[in-house]
Amino acid sequence: MSEEFVAYVAELETPPGKDEATIKATVVDPASQPTAPVSPNPGRNIALGLVLGLLVGAGIAVLRRHSTRPSSRPSSSTTSSMRRCWAPSATTAKQLTLRS
Prior knowledge:
Blueprint: H1 2-13, H2 42-67, H3 76-85, H4 90-99
């Protein structure tokens, strides 16, 4: 494969009407087949996934904690929605009916 690359570079870099290329490619260190797989590394990938998942979860928890903190004074929308959700008990309903 490396000899093919050198020949291809020589072919591409030879100007029209010339016999020699303007540059010369040489192979300094031929490629070799690795003895062990380089990737994937399941142990490392699982550990990184756990650590990143914990960090993201902690970040989301902190953001939710700071974004849902109630203010010292309830807003008008909160009090109006509380009024709309109020339902009288049966005893209170009888008392309201008797008063009117």
